[in-house]
Amino acid sequence: MTCHFSYSNSRVAMSNSADLPSSPSSNNSKAFTPPSSKFTFWLVLCAMILLGTNMRAPIVALGSIAPVVQEALNISETQIGWLGAVPMLTFALGALISPSIGKRFGIENTLIAMIIMLTIGMMIRAFIPTWTGFLSGTVILTLAIGFANTLAAPVIKQRTPNNIPLVTGLFSLTMTVTAGIVAGVVLPLSESIGWQWALGSWSFLSMLAIAIWVFLRFRLGSSSDQIAPVTAQKSSNISIWRTGLGWQIGVFLGLQSLLYYTVASFLPSILVSKGMSAVSAGQMGSVFQFMAPLSILSLTWLINRGRPIQALAVSAAILNVIGIAGLSYASTDWAWLWSGMMGIGCSAIFTLTIMLFSLRTYTTNQASELSGMSQFVGYVIAFFGPLGTGWLHEVTDNWDLPLLITLILMIINVGVAWLVSRPVMVDGKKI
């Protein structure tokens, strides 16, 4: 569904129609002229791509040089573990509170503030070389990312309503590709210029993002100054927390994220325990990660070609089931296939979920609320993936039980995939 928005509250109040531009005022000032749809599309696309470059890179960068940071700061394995757990907690917190803050101060204004906050967090982490400084910087930057995770979908919905799958797909692809690049270069970079500069130098991407988002804000106006049609406003007066679809999307995202973070944390260890060499097991982790671009590009192309979302969602969930089943019970000779299937499934589900925030809501604020609720529920579920898997492995001294439980959860997620991808809006009305 596409909603047409007017561009100024004050001018709308002076006009008999919310869909018409306002007339010049008595002091002969020029009427506001909305930018062309093509200009808006390219500006928003550039802004989303630059935002995407900052969404995962700071987190992946730490994982790639964790031993270097641990030695430099003289901190324990437990403290490194907390640095790994912080993002899911702050993502959940950011998702919970960001819709109300974005609604009050404007989505673009809030995003600009969060990108500034992310930059500050990166600087603190890089240039205050103490445990307290590093932890504080990580909390600040990941909380900012948690806000951006939630507020990206409503911007895409409002600014590019006719290109939601395309812009969402490229945004998701940028996150993945940038994370992969950073993971590969940050360690060699740290050996050349030091770990602090290797972490802090990526803040130039966030500075570029600040510049283009400030330009977007002043060129396109604020989301809070744009009014949805009366029909959409009437349909949006529902509590997202009381909708079945909202909870279903939250569980769908949560179970996907649980698998993603569990595999990202333990895949090499699981394969080594099954007799694979450490080098080969590490390569399977790369296969898991590098499937994301292929998955996102294929998904975006298929949706733009009119393929049903429900079939794609269920297929992605089934790929996760086959992948975890193969990892659990099949020969390691096929580990590349199981890793690839899970990589495709996880990336497709994540991208589909972001699309659904926009496609299944009526207004920008509603998309923000659905995004916030679903990501809060999702990241709370995901937090227990690596934590529970590690604990069960420690208690049982093998991977059988944690893998079986994960397999059962992925089978459940096939049913959830069918529910969340039905052609219905968030209030239950059929599309």
List key phrases describing it.
single chain, 431 residues, mainly alpha, 17 helices, disordered N terminus
Write structural notes for this entry.
With 431 residues, the protein is an all-alpha fold. The protein has 17 helices and no strands. It has helices spanning 9-13, 37-52, 57-64, 66-73, 77-105, 107-127, 131-159, 164-193, 195-200, 203-220, 230-235, 244-273, 278-304, 309-329, 335-359, 364-396, 400-420. Helix 12 runs antiparallel to helix 13 (278-304), helix 14 (309-329) packs antiparallel against helix 17 and helix 16 packs antiparallel against helix 17 (400-420).
Overall 3D form? globular
Low-pLDDT windows of residues: 1-32
Roughly how much helix do the residues carry, as a percent range? over 70%
* Oligomeric category: single chain
Number of beta strands? 0
Q: How are helices and strands ordered from N to C?
A: HHHHHHHHHHHHHHHHH
**Beta strand %:** under 5%
What number is the mean pLDDT? 85
Largest sheet: none
Q: How many angstroms does the end-to-end distance come to?
A: 8 Å
Number of helices: 17
Structural class: mainly alpha
The rounded Rg comes to 22 Å
